[in-house]
# Entry
Amino acid sequence: MIELKDVTVRYPNGVVGLDGVDLEIPDGQFVVVVGLSGAGKSTLIRTINGLVPVTSGTLTVDGRDVSGASKRELRAIRSKIGMIFQSFNLVKRTSVMNNVIMGQLHHIPGWRALLGAWTKDEKEKGYQALERVGIVEKTWTRASELSGGQQQRVAIARALAQDPSVMLADEPVASLDPPTAQMVMKDLQRINRELGITTLVNLHFLDLARAYGDRVIGMRDGKVVFDGTGAEADDAVFEKIYGRSLTADDTLSSNA
Amino acid sequence: MTSSTTASARPATPRPTEPSKTKETLVWLGLLVLFGGAVVLSNARWSQITGIFTDGWRYLQLMGQGLFQNPFSEPYSEYWSLAFDRMLESVYMAWVGTLLGAILSIPLGFLAARNVAGPVTVQITRIVLNAIRAVPELVFAIILMLPIFGFGPVAGAVALGVGAIGTLGKLTAEALEGIDPGPVEAAKASGAGRFSILRWAYWSQVLPEVIAFWLYRFEINIRASAVLGVIGAGGIGSLLGQLFSRREWEQIGITLVVIIIVTIAVDSVSGAIRHRIIAGSGQKVTTEEKAEAAV
Amino acid sequence: MTATPATSPATASAPERPQKPKPSLTVIAGLVLAAAFTWWAAKEIEFSLRDLFTNFTNGWVVIEQFLSPNWSFIWRVWEAWVETIAISIIATCVGVLFGLIFAFMASRVTNRSGWLYRATKIFLSIVRSLPDIAYVLIFVALVGVGALAGILALIIFNIGIAAKLTAETIDAVDRGPLEAADAAGAGTAARSRWAVMPQILPNFLSYCLYIFELNIRSSVVIGIAGGGGIGQVLNVQFSRFEYENVAAITVAIFVVVLLIDQLSQYLRRRFV
# Structure
């Protein structure tokens, strides 16, 4: 369970990323966070795994305090939280397997990590993660040789190899074409259903948000302005979240 | 992809076999053999490496003693002022030498640029520049300069100058080849003479970059002048040579600190000027990167 | 689109001619300063090219000897050649290894500790400010004349260059993989190894070759101060005024440097 109590995040340059956010996300939920860019949805995701430090308030993940954690504790917490990025963030000059094993680096002793001497178990975990996203045939290919959709699936496998209890995804489909975007969203949903991993996804396409979100959270100016089911989130709600009337750019299907 | 409920139920894609690491292992083994061979063939008396820990500590203490004496008391005040004098002499030597090399490298740079001179001229000039680049300044100094100028900083300056021609000529040529051809065509179209095209269309475009190279070369030449000093060209190198042969550790410590202070000071002033000049001309690649690639 | 003010056509017909911009004060001051410094420097070292014309015959005697190289001497000192290559290989391997570690410490991308970053930067700029000859002199004093002193001096020298070049490359890597490694809870060393190292590897290998080239070039300097190798042979021949031998070795060094240059350029093209 993820719990935010009156969490505020202020960046060093004075910009307020989150403004007194209260949230409770139970285990296994598939949550979609929507909002304009700069509304704080990326900050919300990055605060949960401590990439962005909390200025005030408390944040706990599975009962562990993120807001006051030491660097060492923070690394341990992060190792249980998988993360997926808009630009995939793979190391392009190395194999898919090495990229997936990066998800396990927290548990691999330093000298083996330096040498790249992975054990059978670690590779097995890598294979299983790749099988789950259906890209196992590319295990030993260089990441740079994969298409965008394939790279994002490798990135999901990297997160899965962490054995996470929470999965965060920051605009995971923004750099992908519509059919690939649908596939990646289905992968995320399937993983959420099969493994019961709590999933938080940032999206700006409202049709995707409605289709996949058990719960939709709308953000504006660092505040939660809507919190409900996908069905409740009709156009009027989105117009309120976005603070403007909807355009064709706000749906994925019209972008196809 | 079928969306079955469990991972195990989906049709299994065969796992690809891990590529063999033989090639990688062989490369590492090769490097290891190369390194081991070098260790044996270098004729180094490895057992003497203990000298670093025994003598090293003692000498370090002596150097420290020299450094922490009141620098205004005799003889330490003299050590400091001598070191500064000689270091400045090295800086002067490097400056004059660099300027000499810079002036001589201008015509050669033009002759080595493909968009200025004909292919034969370019080839010949490039061979000359490459030959100069390959010969260390030290060799110029001993062969050409010392018999003519005698021992002293003038020989050093001229040797540094001749040595700088190779690199500076090459960098100037490369800068000229990278210019925007627009102004050249404009000047030609307006019927400008050959010399004024070179001066106004070519030279003014590359000037900031070329000056940055000169300054970078000056920084390098300060270090190079120390080497020339050891063989008698004066400056800080001569002082170092004498001090080490007499094992004057207190004074060596002071001299090394002076070298560090003056070099870092000159580097940061020169570097700041270079960055300003280059920033003004909108270049992206740093002088260092280009210059290192051309050494 | 804003409408043009009604007054503008009137002034546009007779635009004021812009003044020729005055050359900026800093540029003038800089030029004056440079000229003054040149004059002062030339005066201090008593710079004059007169000797070049009056004493050229002195030089010519040497040059004549130099133009008849004693080729057979090159092979007679083959052991010194092997020594020079061996010194360069050892110094390159050890120097770039330590240089790499220092580079990771000298970039804010990989070093998250502010004070360690600054301390490394200061240490490296001190290391780089001393000329190679100073290191040779120091190590000759510590371990005696011979190849070992040369190796140690070059190692220190190489650390400075390798660390600087590599640290600049690290500064420019794609931060995405680092963020991913952080999000997975990877430690500092592991994230440097797997999120940064693959990105900088081609550049790093090319720096290794460049440093090996530099080491071969430096062999002359190393030898002058007693650091072993072909430079030491050169030094001995110099002090005996055997310029035919010196010429042969100089030409040979030239050829070796050129060959290694070509080889490393070929290898570099394959890496990048």
